[in-house]
Amino acid sequence: MKALIQRVSSAKVEVDSSITGAIKQGILVFIGIEKTDEKPQIDKMIKKLLAYRVFYDDGGKMNLSVADINGGVLVVSQFTLAADTKSGTRAGFSTAKPPAPAAILYDYFLSQIKQVHTPIASGIFGADMQVSLTNDGPVTFLLEC
Fold first, then answer.
1. Quick one: 47 exposed, middle or buried, by C-beta within 10 A (0-12, 13-18, 19+)?
2. pLDDT surpasses 90 at 48
3. What family does the database annotate (predicted)?
4. Torsion angle of alpha carbons 109, 110, 114, 119, nearest 10°?
């Protein structure tokens, strides 16, 4: 499983010109679900991303997590994160989990993260989404489990 997280001042996702999720300060999380991922990887990723220190403390060091600052989390499924890009000039998707089981894990991700953190917002799995954000920093990390 891969999660690309970006520290944001604000972010939103739209589907068919309607906002499906929006946050103020927090993290935007793009998740790519790989073929071998199951619920244990989802659980591990949730713990990791909520604890990952990307916000500044009073001393100017990145020592605070989104949980520490009570920031928002905007979750967006991104199939292309699971792509194999090691060779050639076109991504291969044999490493990605097929859509139906990936959708189940995406829904599981959302249900589990909502149990331990708020506010949580999200896009719609498999939809054509437009994501707008103000990247704060910029600060971007690729997390893998």
1. middle
2. yes
3. Belongs to the DTD family.
4. 130
Alpha helices in 57-141 (DSSP H): 99-116
**Global pTM value:** 0.94
Is residue 114's pLDDT more than 90? yes
Using alpha carbons, select from 136, 141, 118 the residue that is nearest to residue 10.
Answer: 136
As a whole number of angstroms, the distance between CA 82 and CA 91 comes to 10
Give CA–CA dist 19/21, Å, rounded.
Answer: 6
Measured distance CA(28)–CA(9) in Å, rounded: 10
Q: Is 130 helix (H, G, I), strand (E, B) or coil?
A: strand
In one-letter notation, the amino acid at residue 130 is: Q
- Does residue 91 surpass a pLDDT of 90? no
**32-41 pLDDT, tens per residue?**
999 999 999 9
- What element of type H or E holds 77? strand 72-77
Task: Domains for the chain: give ranges and CATH numbers.
Answer: 2-144 (3.50.80.10)
User: How far apart (Å, rounded) are the C-alpha atoms in residues 53 and 71?
Assistant: 12
Active site residue ranges: 78-80
Q: Are 61 and 139 in contact (CB under 8 A)?
A: no
